[in-house]
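**User:** Once you have settled down, spend some time on the protein underneath, comparing sequence with structure tokens, and judge whether sequence predicts the tokens.
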Amino acid sequence: MASSPWILVSIGLGAMVVLLVIAVGAYRGPGPDFDPAPPLGAVPVPERATSAGRGPSALPSQVVPGLTPRRTNPPRPAGTTVDSPRPSASAVRSSQSPRPAMPTSSAPTGSTPTRAPAAPASPSPFEARYRVTDSFSGGFIAEVWIRNTSRRDREWVARIEYPGGRVVTAWLEGVPQGTFRGAGGTLTYRSGPDLPAGSAVALRFHIEFASPRPASCTVSGRACTGL
């Protein structure tokens, strides 16, 4: 064997040829029904757009656990505008109605409006003087002398207060009588005929259980003197 190396080489070449023939005979090409299954876990590849205008198919959406898929509006083509809500007819009329003009003030800013001073009350046109003409046990006689200082005839009202006293009677000296009322120690006498301008009259009255000095004495709102 060692002296004939060509024999070994020939045997090796023959074996290789036999194996090559077996391999060629076992090989078969794919037939018309050949449809290999896609490998597991493979994601289908979206189709490409063709010249016929068919768009690509959408990829399957993957749902994430814990979230729900939301619907989204399709994109609007360029150049379109979103319609805004139209205002109602009443809102249009109210917006077109003229607004009333605001009143303007002529007073300066920050100034306080001043009020016109009230007219002073006219003083009573009567003079009145009080005095006690007679005193006796349990009572006295007092007098209020009244004079009209105005230029026309006027009526008058005398009010004399004696707290705790009692008014017995009251009268005018030498002129027509008026009316009087005595309650709770207060004498109210209203003149009869108006007292002529510039003239005077004496009002006298009988008081019991009171001090000769009255708490108050007025004739038509004017305080008596002589107290």
